[in-house]
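Record ATP-binding cassette domain-containing protein, 241 aa.
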Amino acid sequence: MQPETGIRVEGLAYAIGPRPVLGPISLHLPGPRVGIVGRNGSGKSTLARLLAGLIQPGEGQIRIEGVDTWQDRRAAIATVGILFQNPEHQIIFPTVLEEMVFGLRQQGRSKAEARQIALDTLVTFGKSHWQDANTDALSQGQKHLLCLMAVMAMRPRWLILDEPFAGLDIPTRMQLVRHLDGCGARIVHITHDPRDLQDYDQLFWLDRGQIRATGGLELLEDFTAQMIRDGGQDDLAQLAG
Ligand SMILES: Nc1ncnc2c1ncn2[C@@H]1O[C@H](COP(=O)(O)OP(=O)(O)OP(=O)(O)O)[C@@H](O)[C@H]1O
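=>
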């Protein structure tokens, strides 16, 4: 039998209390680059966390390269990494090297091996001089890059990006895109901003927890047109039930 490839989402649903937040959805994301676009509150972060195996599906299953990301956590941390919108939610150690070593230790590597891989990764990114830097003293863009380096040190086959460029200026964004393009992982990029997905050809539109459309770049035009129509309304006034 051929090994399973890509991301398979089957009957995935998630609710918070009585309130359905996502799904049920079924998808096959072959990669290498998948874009998911949706409005605020459409369920993007929930989907990102489910894909990375950080929260338990209410119903259904997610398999990435055949690994059930919730059931098999050990295999999952070798298969999928996630970058959050806010690096402050990811960085917990006082120095760059310690931050990078942590995930590798979680993968079961020895101290010496984890340290060596972290140092090698810093060399690959041209950032060896960062190893003893204080993480608190990094700029927002530098914190994003540290998170990317820390996750790439773990050599995931897939990287889930949850609005990774929100709040970054144009040069910082361009530099991060360059690093991402060269990182070698397959990517699921989840965002509210269609401009982030101009180079993506497998696109999905997430709307109120459901997949509203699937397609190529034309999907971004439809999404933008709908967003402009929504902008003419006052749906911010509606509170979630
Ligand atoms: N802890 C929570 N309690 C209640 N409702 C929640 C909670 N977390 C998320 N939700 C609701 O679930 C829905 C999906 O949230 P999610 O954060 O996944 O959306 P999103 O598309 O990432 O939003 P944004 O773009 O604003 O970050 C939203 O309607 C949100 O209000």
